[in-house]
Design a protein that fits this description.
The structure is a homodimer. Chain A is of the alpha/beta class. Helix content of chain A is 45%, strand content 16%.
């Protein structure tokens, strides 16, 4: 995963043994040497076989790698990333036009290796592979909650494993300014609570990522989403100040003053400084969600707008964006920003990142602008991998574009907004779901319509990522231990596996109803913060129920499995209840646990009717569906993920045509 | 954990909230500042509450820390490590004579915090604490298998959390030389397969450890266990050479030549160089297990012995050790070594590390030598935490020593020998068991005789360590995924939780019987390499069975739990069998899985008799106990850990007096 563009299976397999060796031919590039070192380490990790100890026997390495030429010193958009990998039972060859293809091909080889009846082995195969899109990104918001460097390194490791090639860092927002500026030290001194990256730290990360073929694109959001700038530099803003770091989440009034020349002088110096730090030719200026209230309230700004014949705030923002674009261009960068930056006066070399959707992207492409899709790829929406996988940058209006227009759609970026992201849950918010999006952006669309196949590959990716040190599974267990104050969390684990967290929007809606707004200072220690976005148990259970119903209730083995699972849920509340009462962070889960118990009981009753071949009585059905409706309501910011499957069982037992059990939702 | 020396519970508790603040008073020491930063980060991690953002309200911090004076720049043996911690519902105070006490007290505070019905809180308490022994060590053998720096950092983090204060690195042995020497670069160039620590890396680790109150003691084993030295410098040896790195495990012939002055010139330079790198005053020269064969076979050495009236190789080694001790002393270090270094000519300032046991230690103490206990603390023996916990440095002959002699017993070191240790299983081999040994070495013996209490504390430590980034649990899951080639490992997990690995000795014995000797190049990818040394499931199950039997089979709830567990084992083989067949690394587990299944069935039958109040028939009993005997035999280098509990059930059902179910063994 991602599935290669072209795969031909051969016969036999290459068994990995102690003597396994690699050699590099062709253009010498230190990054290839580093990659081979990592490869041997990872292959050893993946097989448990000590490797790297023996030189190639009789001069012929097991895996020969050949890159025609070195890729650019820092990876760039549009470089050739293709490779050809041949594996036979006697050896393997990896050839690529550039270093980048070698990096990708080595990752493919590592994914081919698995336990077989003859030992760890890679199947004989001929692969010709190249990405569908040149821009395959992951955006991490490090502002709303600070994400430490160690987590970014883990993200780069995982990205390399699934062939994502752009790490986009959302480095400033109302809630924090996270990147050191030597020109303007107060940005972090006053705007970061001490949580920021030094330039040295960022340089090291850039090198580390470049070594793995990954670009780093910085974003500094302007003119809105910029309160944290104004804590140290209130003169940049359109209001009076003073400012403090914003703790709430949402869209706020503070915005830069587009009418003062000093603003552009500041930005020129700032962008100049940061353009040197970040080697990538693309520089992201955000540009989203300006509410304009500070502009409306500022008489000087209003006068400026009248003097320049600007009809509304949108035109004022256009003016700002055009000025900033010239500064960005002056520092030899291409500007990238969210949908809002697009206006007729913009040069054609800017890139639009679309949070609005493929149609908006298609509109931009028609006007000659390049774009990236992010709508549908928001990891904080807590959707399933299948839901993200179904989103395609070339869908909707984009499907109707001419080939030339289509070529302007560069790819996409999955985004992790950080309202509810912390150093403790960042891995499970990103992985393994981002790997499904990576496949959408790399692999041929016609080969990747099978969701079941995607999940099989995703399961394989998941344990490999833990082996590489990503903590998407282990951090969940640790957080359950934290809530319970013990390692002995079996009943809490049962509940945790049966639920899924509310996405960003619904969770904030709940806040509004509760009047307990969550801010950047709110503890993130509840079940909603710990459980993975997608419940694997619920997916497996749904699949089981679906196939049981489709098989007309004949599969005894499936029935036993379903019955056992339902009994576990039914009986779990009595074991869990004392644990919930001991801990405030758990206490609000009591109704969730009771609902799960009721669902388990309902499912067992339904199974009983099915087992006896009785049609469930109508009043039982009515009552039970009412229980189910109640269990659909989120509580303590989690949904019970197994509800739809149990509803299917109940409906089936009442003799209705069985609807598919549905996915995780 | 470790339990403090003196604890008085107060009333109420200190609730941890957003405004929690800390301040340091007294002697200024940068290490206290670092410790407070880490403390706030860890407290935030432990509670999920964002901390560190607000200064102390009205000048009064929630936790006030006071160290009378700074401890030594690098921690030293015998410094005052005591502290007093007062927690009330309104705040907390931590006072200590030195920085070291502050470090320990902060860890104690972190352990006090847990989820309560009023939120995360620490109970009101008055603690006066100081260690029982000044030397509380962890030895890691990084030679037989190389352990990367990242794992050493994790070890230091975990050690600090449980108040261990010496990291002893076994840096050279036959299988690899792991420490860069600038004087003698061929030591690592030819003796390490490229797997070694640079001096810069080691300096960074030393600083990191010192910041956490932890000493680092280097060991370079001589004159035996030294093949890796001779690959680059064959002239040091007593044989002809040339040498290659030893891949097998055991005791080998190569030994340094004690009769050549060049040997001591080399060691003088080498020890001089490394004594500068490692600031700790103790320098470990190994000294164990010289078989003397190279000495016997070398005519010059034999002539030297005759000329110096040496009767045997032991006297020759004494001569060597005395010469080396003078070199160590010349470089301002105290020599430390294994039992074998002790001889009448030695000065009293050396330290004996005993792999032979408390009696040997007591003997040394009587002669005026200081010592450390390691016998009984070998983590590679794969014993339970309870077994290690029962070992006391002051037991046996040591209990009979005079107070002055007793003061020479400095403490102990738990040892992780690396025949079967890899970067992938190192965390689970060390933790959480080493925490039980840490408690033995810190806490008053009279307060720490209750094994059940120890396990309760150990469970608490376990999830905290995962939260801190130790991978003792997560690496197990990742390795199961590796063996199965999928993330979907439920039946393999069931088997994994029911077994425990063979210890070093029995595993090597099996090798001998099988004639498939395991070496440093052998893949370490089987279940034995993945499962934790102690089966928690087996322990819980044993406790359950024991209490069920003790309660005369009346506890229905316990019976249901036992029945459910037994049914899972009985039914597991059919789910697991296809997975085992697909993978060579799993295939040999088939008989283990079948035995577990048979045990589950036998236990259910026993439960059936008990349930019906029938005495199980004698022939059933005979047959069943034969099944159990068969299941006791190790297979694929694992034991089934649940055997004794099932045996107890079977015996009980046959109407015999029920023996206690026993522990994990």
């Amino acid at each position: 995963m991602p599935l290669p563009a072209k795969v031909q299976r051969g016969s036999g397999q290459l068994v990995i043994e102690n003597g396994f060796s690699v050699s590099a031919e062709g253009q010498h590039d230190a990054r290839v040497d580093h990659a081979l070192q990592r490869f041997m380490k990872d292959l050893s990790l993946e097989t448990g076989i000590p490797l790297g100890l023996s030189p190639a026997a009789n001069g012929k390495a097991t895996l020969t790698v050949h890159a025609e030429k070195a890729s650019k010193p820092y990876p760039e958009l549009g470089e050739d990333e293709s490779y050809t990998l041949d594996v036979t039972s006697s050896g393997a060859t990896l050839t690529a036009p550039t270093t980048l293809g070698v990096l990708h091909g080595l990752e493919t080889f590592l994914q081919l290796v698995g336990p077989t009846a003859q030992g760890f082995a890679a199947p004989a195969v001929h692969i010709e592979d190249a990405p569908r899109f040149p821009w395959r990104g992951l955006m991490i918001d490090v502002s709303r909650h600070f994400i430490p460097m160690s987590a970014l390194y883990r993200a780069v490791d995982a990205m390399a494993a699934v062939k994502l090639n752009v790490l986009h860092l959302h480095l400033s927002d109302d809630q924090g300014f996270r990147m050191e500026s030597k020109e303007f030290p107060k940005l972090t001194e006053l705007g970061s609570d001490g949580n920021y990256y030094t330039q040295d730290e960022m340089k090291a990360l850039i090198e580390y990522a470049a070594d793995r073929g990954i670009r780093i694109v910085p974003e500094f959001d302007m003119p809105g989403h910029s309160t944290s700038w104004f804590v140290g530099y209130p003169e940049l803003s359109s209001g009076a100040g003073p400012y403090t770091i914003e703790r709430r989440f949402g869209i706020f009034n503070p915005a830069m003053d587009p009418t003062r020349e000093e603003t552009y002088k500041f930005l020129d110096k700032f962008i100049g400084e940061l353009s040197e730090l970040f080697p990538d030719p693309y520089f992201h200026i955000g540009g989203d969600e300006v509410n304009g209230k500070q502009w409306d309230a500022n008489a000087k700004i209003q006068a400026f707008m009248r003097a320049h014949n600007m009809k509304n705030n949108q035109e004022l923002q256009q003016y700002f964006t055009e000025r900033v674009q010239k500064i960005v261009a002056k520092h030899h960068k291409y500007m990238i920003g969210w949908d809002e930056i697009l206006s007729p006066g913009m040069p054609k070399d800017i890139v639009i990142q679309s949070w609005r959707g493929p149609d908006s992207l298609a509109g931009a492409a028609k006007q000659g602008y390049r774009g990236l899709l992010s709508s549908g790829y928001y990891l904080d929406a807590m959707e399933t991998a299948a839901e993200h996988y179904a989103v395609d940058p070339m869908s909707g209006e984009a499907a109707k574009l001419t080939p030339q227009e289509k070529s302007r759609i560069l790819g996409g970026e999955t985004c992790a907004w950080a309202e509810f992201l912390t150093p403790q849950n960042v891995d499970s918010r990103l992985w393994p779901r981002a790997a499904a999006i990576a496949e959408r952006l790399w692999s041929p669309p016609q080969e990747t319509q099978d969701v079941a196949g995607m999940y099989r590959r995703l399961e394989n990716v998941s344990w490999r990522l833990e082996l590489l040190g990503i903590r998407h599974r282990s951090e969940v267990s640790a957080m359950l231990g934290r809530m319970a104050g013990t390692d002995n969390v079996a009943p809490l684990q049962v509940l945790a596996e049966a639920v899924r967290p509310l996405g960003l929007g619904p969770r904030q809606d709940t806040d509004e109803k509760d009047k307990t707004e969550e801010t950047a200072l709110t503890p993130m220690n509840r079940l909603v913060d710990a459980v993975p976005p997608e419940s694997e148990s619920a997916r497996d259970f749904s699949d089981l129920v679906e196939s049981f119903i489709a098989g007309h209730f004949q599969d005894r083995r499936a029935e036993t499995e379903i019955r056992d699972e339902l009994a576990v849920w039914r009986d779990n509340d009595s074991a869990l209840e004392p644990m919930l009462q001991r801990s405030t962070v758990l206490r609000k889960l009591a109704p969730v646990s009771q609902n799960l118990s009721a669902l388990g009981a309902a499912g067992l009753e339904a199974l009983g009717y099915l087992d006896r071949g009785e049609r469930a009585p109508a009043d039982w059905k009515t009552q039970t569906l009412a229980t189910i409706e109640k269990a659909k309501e989120p509580q303590a910011d989690v949904y019970i993920a197994v509800v739809p499957a149990i509803e299917s069982l109940v409906n089936a037992s009442a003799g209705l045509a069985a609807a598919p059990a549905g996915g995780n939702k």
